[in-house]
Amino acid sequence: MEYIQVDNFVVKLRAYPNKEQREKIDTILHGLRVAYNVTAYEIANSNKSLSKQDKKDESVRWPNFSACMKKEWIDYLRANYPVVNDVPATSLASSVYGVFADAKKSWENFHPEIIGKQKIRHGKPCFYRDGSPVWERTEKPVKLPCGKWKPIYYSGKKPRASFTVQTMQSGFEFPEDSKSAYISVTGLGKVKCRGWRYDLRFGDKPECTFLEFYGKQKKAFGVTVSKDNCGDYWLVVKLQTVWLPDKTKKKKKVPIGVDVGIKDIAITSEGQKYENKHFARSMKRRKRRLNRKVSRRQGWANIKFREAHKKDKELQPSKGYERSKLKLAKLERKIARCRENYNHNVTLDIVQSASFIGIESLNVKGMMANHHLAYALNDAAMSDVLSKLKYKSEWRHIPIKEIGQWKPSSKTCSICGYKRKNLSLSVREWTCPECGSHHDRDINAAINIRNFALK
To answer: Distance between CA atoms of 334 and 283, rounded to whole angstroms?
Structure first.
């Protein structure tokens, strides 16, 4: 069997923590939420210990994220907020995957709101129905000083869902008579999980296992613990270099151009079309029924409950609301899993028969602004297909080239090069007036994408 060398490979495992471990994970996530919100609030309000003075203007202060990771600030948080004491130190102070590193990324990727591309408004966008202007986000991120940066905080609706710690090689156990694996996580102990990739190869020898390869090395691995909307727990182990078995069928490899769309999720220059299964649309009626059920229950989706909660803060959602909300979350997860599995099969079939791949860059954000196509575009997940094509071709060392989104791939005749002036979306087939060739719109676009990419 042939193997592919893959760098930065991740293995996602389903975790089965016991009751104490589940409570501990929830406490850690709550502690991270508190630490992030407090730190972001203090930076936005120009806290002197978490900011530095501008060299030119003394009245301007800039965030100092390195100070957030120092012992003085972490001790302050643990002294004033007891829930932070349960959070592992690496999840706070790490400059790579700590919670304060996320705050730095949020500051670096901040998009202020603009109107008419003239006046800048800092804060959350406001939308009005009375005819007043609508604020839009800028295309490029802007780094702003402390007083003008408006961070996005974690809340009950958008909680913190993961944290990352380091685990040594000795923390992994793989019993011979069991499909389960046990991984030691800081603050949790040994967590039972399933789904380990036993087909992976480590080192030069095919029989070399994970424990044998890293047995003599003092190697630390990043382990991310997460909780999804369905209440299930997951562990993601980050591996630097592995050899992945290549089970693809051997086919004749040719240069291929790939065009993505809504009717067909992917069209190749060889004439192969992959149907869009419309997983969300097929479940739309059931999802609408569950949404109505959730909105009728006593919970946050009910307007009457939200108004009553303003008067009585101790009012909690009913158990029926929690059950209906869980059913809705499981349905959404099922749709996402079906779509991802299908996209994996489609991209694998394309990659295993390609010696070169040409794709088209897409402005998905701009396309989603068309509300007539937004639902269909979201259901198709075209950007997910392109991203899978990119990393799978890189694994197999297949060159992949991306052409500009304004290239006239659909309007150009792939035989003679004639460029048509107007071509609406409703026209699926057309005939070239120069050479008389009859074209399928999508296949012709895929051929032109391949030709443009090869040039």
So the answer is: 10
Amino acid identity of 395?
W
The span from the CA of 453 to the CA of 455, in Å, is: 5
Measured torsion, CA atoms of residues 233, 235, 236, 239, in degrees rounded to the nearest 10: -170
> pTM for this one?
0.83
Bridge partners, residue 186, by sequence: none
**DSSP readout, 334-376?**
HHHHHHHHHHHHHHHHHHTTEEEEEEE---HHHHHT-TTTHHH
CA dist list (Å): 121 to 66, 107, 116, 125, 149: 28, 16, 11, 9, 11
The CB density around residue 319, as the number of other CB atoms within 10 Å, is 11
State how far the Cα of 306 lies from the Cα of 315, in Å rounded to an integer: 9
Identity of the residue numbered 374: A
Q: Are strands 136-137 and 113-115 parallel, antiparallel or unpaired?
A: antiparallel
SS3 content of the chain, % helix, strand, coil (to 5): 35, 25, 40
Which run of H or of E encompasses 22? Answer: helix 19-44
Can you list the residues of the chain whose pLDDT is less than 50? 116-118, 123-125
φ/ψ (deg, to 5) at 430: -155, 160
DSSP 201: B
Q: Which two tokens stand for residue 23?
A: 């409570």
Residue 118 confidence (pLDDT): 47
The backbone torsions φ and ψ at residue 336, rounded to the nearest 5 degrees and listed phi first, read -65, -40
DSSP, collapsed to helix, strand or coil, labels residue 113 as strand
* pLDDT score recorded for residue 15: 95
Q: What's residue 131's pLDDT?
A: 52
- Smallest CA-to-CA distance from 5 within 194, 218, 310, 239 is with 239
Query: Which of 333, 317, 340, 302 has its CA nearest to residue 230?
Result: 333
Across-strand partners of 425? none
Query: What's the confidence (pLDDT) of residue 318?
Result: 93
Domain positions in the chain are: 1-110+149-247, 254-278+331-454
CATH topology (fold) of 254-278+331-454: Nucleotidyltransferase; domain 5 (3.30.420)
**Rounded to 5 degrees, what are φ and ψ at 382?**
-65, -40
Determine the residue type at 312: D
What single string gives the DSSP state of each residue in 32-100?
HHHHHHHHHHHHHTT-GGGEEE-SS-TT-EEE-HHHHTSHHHHHHHHHH-GGGGGS-HHHHH-TTTSHH
